[in-house]
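Good day; I would like, with your permission, to put a structural problem before you. A protein sequence and the structure tokens that stand for its backbone fold form the material at issue. Thank you for your consideration; the sequence and its tokens are set out here:
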Amino acid sequence: MNIYKLVGRNLDVTDAMRSYAEEKLAKLDRFSDQIVDASVVMSYDTKQDAANPATVEVQVNLPNGIIRAEESAQDTYAAIDLVVDKLDRQLKRFKGRMLAKRQEAAPTPPDSEATAAADAEEADDVFGDGPRIVRVKRHVMRPMAPEDAALQMEALGHTFFVFHNVDTDLISVIYRRHDGDYGLIEPAQG
């Protein structure tokens, strides 16, 4: 697998770290030869978590979506091992769901090219001395059906997912309800 982008925050990424990450991520190729690339962010922050200051975030891009994982450990190499294990499990689950979806698909699928996704944006509201925004995530919203967005949300392990709905051509949010079903939020027009 090719690492498209490797970034270090509060950390100088050495050639050894880059090689180790590439070697470990190559293990994921056995589950999907369709992996396009991966983005890796390595950070080191003793103020956030003194016991596990090294954090590694990886986003693996697939033609039909993405898989994302984040893990922290005492050192960067251990965090890489943990995040690759997590990605391994997520990729197995994602591939299984995609195969199941293909088997259940109708003979004429509406649009097989429109399945892709990215990570949902997470941020807190800022009001006076209350909570503050400590992290901003950005992602490309590719058009997809709500069913595909639900699959992506589950693959990412999130409780909600923001996406561009191909049925309505609007930005929508799908979320998991307390009863286990899904809810869909769409902007009102008018």
